[in-house]
Fold:
Amino acid sequence: MARKRSDLAGAAVARGQTPEEVLDRNLAELLQEMRVAITGVQILFAFLLTLPFSARFDELGTFGTTVYAVTLLSTASATLVLIAPVSFHRTLFRQRRKEQLVAFADGALLVGLALLLLGIAAAVLLVLDVVLGRRPALVACGFVVVLGVVAWYVLPLRQRRRADG
Structure:
C-alpha cells in the first residue's frame, strides 16, 4: 500500500520515531532545502534589480523588456513564496502547529522551485537573446525548461512511484 506524504504516524512507525521527532526532522530537512533554493533566487534577483541601470538596457526593445518583466516578477514571486514559511512559523510560533508548518513549507518549496525555474529560464532567454539572437535564445531557454522539469520533477516523481508501488 502506498504511503501518502502526510502520513505522519506511518512515517514515525517506519523510522522508530515519535511523530514529533518526524516533524522536527522534516522541518530541518525543509529548511536546509530552502536555504539552497533561496541562495539561487537571491543571486538572480540581485542581478535583475541592477539590470535596468546598465547602459544597454534601453536597447532591449519590447520583447526584451517583456521577458525582463516576466523574469523579475517570477523571481520576486519565488522569493516571496520561499520566504513565506518564515512568516508562517513566526505567526504560529508556540502554537503547537508544526505539522501545519511542515505541510505549508513543503508546498511553498515546490511552488517556489517552479517559480525559480521560470525565472532562470526567462533570464537565460533574456541574456542569450542579446548575446546570440532570438532563435538560439529560444532553443536554450527550452532546453533549460526541459532540463529543470526533468531534474526537479520528473525524475523525483518517477522514483517516488517506484518506491510506492
